[in-house]
Amino acid sequence: MTALTLSTAAAPGLRADAIVVGVAKGGSAKSGDLVVAPGAEAVDKAYDGGLAGVLETLGASGGEGEVTKLPAPSGFKAPVVLAVGLGAQPDKGASFDTETLRRAAGAAARALAGSKKAAFALPVADAADAGAIGEGALLGAYAFDTYKENGRNGKKDGKNGKPPLAEVALLGGKPRDKAYKAAVERAVAVSEELNRARDLVNTPPNDLNPEAFAAVAQTAAKEHGIKVQVLDEKALEKGGYGGILGVGAGSASAPRLVKLSYTSSKAKKHLAFVGKGITYDSGGISLKPAGHNETMKCDMSGAAAVFAAVVAAARLGLEVNVTGWLALAENMPSGSATRPGDVLRMYSGKTVEVLNTDAEGRLVLADALWKASEDKPDAIVDVATLTGAMVLALGNRTFGVMANDDAFRTAVVEAAEEAGEPSWPMPLPDHLKKGMDSPTADIANMGERMGGGLVAGLFLKEFVGEGITWAHLDIAGPAFNESGPFGYTPKGGTGSAVRTLVRVAELAASGDLGAK
Ligand code: BES
Ligand code: MN
Ligand code: ZN
After folding, report:
1. Exposed/middle/buried for residue 88 (C-beta within 10 Å: 0-12, 13-18, 19+)
2. CA-closest residue to ligand 1 atom 5
3. Which BP terms from GO are recorded (predicted)?
4. Which domain holds residue 345?
5. Residue 262 placed within a domain
6. Is there a single domain that holds both residue 280 and residue 403?
7. Which of 134, 147, 436, 451 has its CA 20 to 30 A from that of 340?
8. Mean pLDDT to the nearest integer, 458-472
């Protein structure tokens, strides 16, 4: 992992491979109206106040995420200045938006792969800005090269991509100030755990089956003083977890239900996070066609997010109890697999007619939600790559938020916004429940095709304990980035929802989580 420190060093004397500065589009309409962002005064001065002009000559526009490298001015210890675009300059008196800074720091860190150390001289108006820049840099520097011949485990000759930027020094902050220290510590804990969630998502499904995932959770939990309990196939059988067992029935790798309990002696609230952990979703007997299964190792992104968020909450010592539930199974077709037409008896006692074995996420979540409800938490949030319909509705960067309580749904959407994650509230219209009527069982695992994301949400709602506030995040779109990297988001696993869950836990700890 990239190291992060606050530094008071002045840019000229700093020993680093590069100094990162911000450049914004100025207020006037004429093209090439560039403004060097605050934080880079010393650098600009060394160019005799001409940095904006030099950047203009080099074709920089100040557009968000744009990266321009230029030789550092003479007298500088660092050889390179990297200017990153911040988009439009904020109104007079206002500072740059934290998410803009986070993304810019991410783009800069990614562009500096192969470098050892970089100093970030971006605009820092307060501790939150320092945290955002730190987070962006650590998330943007991420690379998954475990399986590359010349990656982490081999010789680093650059043939298979450069190693990530190793060290980030943040300039412009106050290293002795409590708030700044806390912001950097938070950025490190959240980013490290989020990057670990990305690693889990990116790990190929032949290496990350339910058992392997549970083992990773066990190790991490021990390290961070989190209580962990793993239900294996025998325990699941004994407990009557028909949903998780039914989904895992076709796989040579047995399912698991993992419970992670982080408790704080000062906690006033208890949150439960539930994650969909399908380590590979082939669709089962309702097999997915080619073109739809190549990235389905990402179907455990919800469980990865929950896992990362619980560990982050523990590392930050948040004053709230957080229970994480990882519903782990592999969805495969075989002679022992659940058939379309089979009826499963769920942990809640309800029966489900499985009409489509590819609607498996809701089955494992149903058992985990009912189990989580038994503890009577103040609220449950589940996270799942649940439906293609949600991707059609909201695209690849926004997750949908559904809930059984409007105020809680709003609170979660606001938490996501504060965390820098795009999300959107979605309804759970009662009339769509009818489509899941089954002639044989209490409910079917499929309903109307139209509004498929909401239908899935309505199915889950049936398995939330009476009177418990619940929200459901469908992250099928943003969990896995199949196109090029942007901002601090790499190709592949993104760590979607980790920061939202951490923010929800923080708000619950401070008593500020909406109505709850
Ligand atoms: N894991 C998929 C959803 C998914 C789709 C995740 C695209 C990430 C990207 C889920 O298990 C699934 O197959 N859902 C079906 C449900 C349908 C059969 C009712 C879907 O969305 O097509
Ligand atoms: Mn599926
Ligand atoms: Zn799935």
Report:
1. middle
2. 388
3. proteolysis
4. 191-510
5. yes
6. yes
7. 451
8. 98
Question: What would the mean pLDDT of 354-359 be, rounded to a whole number?
Answer: 98
Index of the ligand 1 atom closest to the CA of residue 456: 19
Question: What CATH number did the domain enclosing 82 receive?
Answer: 3.40.220.10
Mean pLDDT of 362-371: 99
The residue to which tokens 């559904």 are assigned: 402
For residues 318-327, average pLDDT:
98
**CATH number of the domain encompassing residue 500:** 3.40.630.10
Tell me if residue 350 is catalytic. no
| Spatial contact of 321 and 271, defined as CB atoms under 8 Å apart | yes
Summarize pLDDT for 217-227 with one digit per residue, the tens.
Answer: 999 999 999 99
Residue 288 annotated as catalytic: yes
pLDDT for the residue 27:
74
Q: Is 179 helix (H, G, I), strand (E, B) or coil?
A: helix
Domain shared by 360 and 407, yes or no: yes
Residue 327 backbone dihedrals phi, psi, to 5 degrees: -95, 100
What angle separates helix 361-374 from helix 452-461, to the nearest 10 degrees? Answer: 30
Read off the pLDDT of each residue in 283-312 and give the average, rounded to a whole number: 98
Share of the chain above pLDDT 70, in %: 97
In whole angstroms, how far apart are CA 465 and each of 326, 371, 372, 375, 453? 18, 9, 8, 10, 21
Q: How far is the CA of 361 from the centre of ligand 1 (A)?
A: 8
Separation between Cα atoms, residue 451 and residue 362, nearest integer Å: 15
CA of 38 to the centre of ligand 3 (A): 46
> Hunting for tokens 């700890």 — which residue is that?
509
Rounded-to-10 torsion of CA 305, 307, 308, 312? 130
Nearest-CA residue for ligand 1 atom 19 is 359
Could you tell me if 331 and 443 lie in one domain?
Answer: yes
CB burial of 146-169 (b: ≥16 within 10 Å; e: otherwise) equals eeeeebeeeeeeeeeeebbbbbbb
Specify the pLDDT at position 161.
77
Whether 37 is in a domain gets the answer yes
Domain count along the chain: 2
State the distance from the centre of ligand 2 to the C-alpha of 360, rounded, in angstroms. 5
Q: Do the Cβ atoms of 40 and 120 come closer than 8 Å?
A: no
> Any idea how long the chain is?
516
Sign of CA dihedral 60, 64, 67, 70: positive
Atom from ligand 1 closest to the CA of residue 389? 21
Residue with token string 């504060």: 418
Same domain? For 168 and 202 the reply is no
Q: Assess whether 167 and 283 both reside in one domain.
A: no
Whether residues 129 and 200 share a domain: the answer is: no
Query: From atom 8 of ligand 1, which residue's Cα is the shortest distance away?
Result: 476
For residue 3, the surrounding DSSP H or E stretch is strand 3-6
